[in-house]
Design brief:
Elements (H helix, E strand, L loop, with lengths): L8 E6 L11 E6 L5 E7 L7 H13 L2 E2 L1 E8 L5 H19 L6 E8 L6 H13 L6 H6 L9 E6 L6 E7 L12 E9 L2 H13 L16 E12 L2 H21 L7 E9 L2 H12 L2 H8 L5 H9 L11 E4 L2 E5 L2 E2 L4 H8 L3 E7 L5 E8 L3 H6 L5
Parallel strand pairs: 5-6, 9-10, 11-15
Antiparallel strand pairs: 1-2, 2-5, 3-4, 3-10, 7-8, 8-9, 11-16, 12-13, 12-15, 13-14
């Protein structure tokens, strides 16, 4: 189990007709008793904010951080759809609430898929009764399948909350437009630990900052990014630090799965900039490299072209002394003092041939450090994203 591993939650997923392929496209995660529980969310900071994001944010504000369920669709983002899109998002919540027997404002809504195309709302509304009727404790697999777009596999994770017996479970989707401050990604997390809405907000923000927000695949930021956390309280009180650690573990696991499933990617790259004058400088440098098509192509080609990394650091707007820069691949230093150094070519080649790469750029200036998760750039990425598909 994943998103229903925590006591007090059910889920379901169906094909309602959004996707012509017949694949599942409508998903639900809800409380088993249909009552609202403490909830929190983190949303995209893209100012072209999608209708479901605006709707969910407003609902959480109105209920003071409580929700009874989340309805999600894939195949259409309901973004750049104006007032009609907002009305459609509200209609999804109202229809789901009517079937569950709760207030429409106690339902949150997420959408993912193509941008700028009106939502087939009648198709979705016709599918809601079957979606709600099918909810079950073992509905987590169907729910996770129904939020996939270009994902090659469903993404799920669980973690124990210390020794308390409580758990955190989650499901997510995301394979591209994974950029700082989340991604074209949706994630729903649940826990049976007892917590307030304020506690959940603080915990979720901390977890997102160290997981989804360090993930960069193509440096494109989505309109729909949403991470939601619900707490049933069925397992009672727990240590808040243990709960934060479990939420962080689930978010990190899901983010790592996204990095591994990035569109067309053959490499998952853990890129660290260290020795910076500040953490902010390290972050700026790491993100500059992770966004570079040149660097991404070198990883795809298994080429230890460290000069490309150094060049990107040089335009990142950070404090830098080129004669202190060092670069390593898989722990093997290939450059130091800003120049190439003798190294074991075979060891570097062996590392670059692997699926997971570990690259470190040391600026030699201070204690600042930052790590991003990123990937290579391949022909398949272009194929996937040609023609708006």
């Amino acid at each position: 189990m994943s998103v229903t591993a925590a006591k007090g939650f059910v889920a379901s997923g169906i094909h309602c007709g959004i996707k012509s392929s017949g694949d599942p496209d409508l998903s639900l995660v809800a409380t088993a008793d249909r009552r609202p529980v403490p909830a929190a969310a983190v949303f995209t900071d893209n100012k072209m904010t999608a209708a479901p994001v605006l709707t969910s944010d407003a609902h959480l504000a109105r209920t003071h951080g409580r929700a009874a369920g989340v309805v999600l669709n894939s195949g259409n983002a309901n973004a750049a759809t104006g007032a009609p899109g907002r009305a459609d998002a509200q209609a999804m919540c109202a229809a789901t609430a009517a079937q569950l027997g709760c207030d429409p404002h106690e339902i949150l809504v997420c959408s993912t898929g193509l941008i700028g195309i009106p939502l087939p709302i009648d198709t979705i509304l016709a599918g809601v009764p079957a979606l709600v009727a099918g909810r079950a404790v073992d509905g987590d697999v169907a729910a996770a399948e129904a939020i996939r777009t270009t994902d090659t596999a469903r993404k799920v994770a669980t973690a124990p909350v210390g020794e308390s017996g409580a758990v955190v479970g989650g499901m997510a989707k995301g394979a591209a437009m994974l950029s700082p401050n989340m991604a074209t990604m949706l994630a729903v997390l649940t826990t049976d630990a007892e917590a307030t809405g304020d506690q959940l907000r603080e915990i979720l923000r901390g977890a997102v900052s160290q997981s989804f927000n360090i993930l960069m695949t193509d440096a494109c930021r989505s309109t729909n990014d949403t991470v939601i956390l619900l707490a049933s309280g069925k397992a009672g009180r727990v240590d808040e630090h243990d709960l934060a650690a479990a939420v962080g573990q689930v978010c990190a696991d899901l983010a790592s799965q996204m990095a591994g499933d990035a569109e067309g990617a053959t490499k998952v790259v853990k890129l660290t900039v260290t020795g910076a004058a500040s953490d902010a400088d390290a972050e700026a440098g790491a993100r500059q490299i992770a966004a570079s098509a040149l660097c991404k192509c070198s990883w795809y080609g298994q080429d230890p072209y460290w000069g490309r990394l150094a060049s990107e650091l040089g335009v990142a707007g950070i404090e830098m002394d080129q004669e202190r820069v060092a670069v390593s691949y898989g722990g093997v230093t290939v450059a130091a003092g800003g120049v190439s150094v003798d190294h074991d070519d075979a060891a570097v080649a062996e590392h670059l041939a692997q699926r997971h790469l570990d690259i470190v750029c040391d600026l030699g200036l201070g204690e600042g450090s930052f790590t991003v998760l990123t990937n290579d750039l391949t022909h398949e990425y272009i194929d996937e994203n040609t023609g708006g598909s």
